[in-house]
Specification:
- This protein has 542 residues and is α/β, with parallel strands linked by helices.
- The protein is 32% helix and 25% strand.
- It is built from 17 helices and 24 strands.
- The strands form seven sheets. It has a five-stranded mixed beta sheet.
- Strand 23 (458-463), helix 15 (470-489) and strand 24 (503-505) form a beta-alpha-beta unit.
- The model has no long low-confidence stretch (mean pLDDT 90).
- This is Acetyl-CoA synthetase-like protein.
- InterPro entries: AMP-dep_synth/lig_dom, ANL_N_sf.
- One of its GO terms (molecular function) is medium-chain fatty acid-CoA ligase activity.
Amino acid sequence: MASHFITSTLEALAKYPSRALFKQHVPQNGSPSWVSISYETFLRDLERSAAYFVETLPGLGLKQNDVVGLWITGVKYSDLAHIYGLARAGYVPEVLNAKITIPIIRDLFAKTGGRALIFEPIFASSVGNDFELPTLPIPELSSLSTPSSALPPLPDVAPTDRGLIFHTSGTTSGIPKPIPETHRWINSHAQVLWPRTWQCYTDGRPLILNNIGSFANIGSAVAIAYLSWSGHCMVQTSKSDFEVDEFLAMLKEGLNALFLYAPWFSKLLNIAKSDANVLAALQGLSQIIYTGAALNPEDEIWATEQGIPVTAMYATTETAIAMVTPFAEKGILPAMRLIEGLDYKFIPTRGLEASDLDRDSEHRVQGGQLFDLFLPAEADNCPHESVRNRPDGHITGDLFEEVKPGLYCFRGRNDDWIRTGKHFSFCDTKSIEDHVLTSCADLVRNCVVVGHYKPGVVLFVEPTKDINSPEDEAALKSAILERISAFSARLIIHERVNTLSQIVSVPSGSLPRTTEKGNIRRKAVEEDHSAILDEIYAGLEI
């Protein structure tokens, strides 16, 4: 594989000049509508963007291989052109989404070595005039000229150097965790993982599928690399949980496959149960992949019985795609196999019982050994060394059970991260708990954050002093909320404790704990207090 990921991407883009690479969502009179953009057009736009950055950024004191922040809305075609244009100019784009704030950008740059910030003009008031590094508004793509001379050569890079930088959907101590993607990682994703994930097109016909979320997030931002390698096309959606009429309109644009997060796919299946047109549309697709969470068993069974061509996929920002349901093996959802050609392996998890899992996973577990997924350091899509959690590689933190030889099912997590919010994004509960215990040491003796696969998080606290009245409880909650407000403001919205209703006070020592170490048992807290939690979740607006 070529070292710099842009080299192979440019070669791939040149193979299919007249094919549609991207269908830009441009609604007409309130109805879904799209404009096709060819491989050749995207390549020209990429080169115009690259030429602008080649001409402009050295004047800001930047040199090739510097990390440059690119703060984008994540909803515009031009976002993709500028990500790849900045990379073609020889820089390392650190892609920042619309939810990021200037204080968080400063913290991220301190970790990644960011040297400048290029920003969407709508963020100008946030950037202001006192940002300590060079700043530059993103130009309108249509205003850029075609380069009059050849672009300079790409810089020399090693396969394990950073090619792009993204971030986790949750934060650690109030800061999204930077996830650099190496050149070999991106090339492996495009040339090995993607073709073996979409098992429905093996004859060279183009796959036409939707984007999965914002172009500022890895699932859609890396799309150009993997789509171009296989000659495929992406249809832009108006939002990740697009409406049914938009789905049906996309079919008329040639959509023949779906790529969805499990929560929205579950809603689509529920609609299909009472709408014959939607059911027929799902049945007529070549392949549907869902990811991000498990479907409930009833949906898995129903989709299989109806002949809907659905497959589960396991992927993370750190590891890319790792497992997918074999398309040819029917009736095995949600089981998955490791993708061939990857140097992964499962290693037994020690010291963890089924009763320690979240409620859904405990109900699904079949009594077998639980495994961690391990990526050795030499694996092409082992994450960058700054991300790895072992000297010899990386363990994902997700748990799996082998249900049949070579077939594995997801069985929850083995760390302090949960999934919460509208899109079940990651949340580091320990960083929130640690901050509460530090900032409220005179108020809170112990605490735990819950909310796995729920609309938001809830903080349970054991106060240092007895609560003798509703007034005492209200005063305690108000004091906690005030002390953690600055910290919460730095978190992504689904992680924040913003309201009094998200704090529950319980008597000291009453939270369930493990027998041996006395650690608070998160899942048991959720089960013991399920009634009050259901009321809280029903009223949350995240």
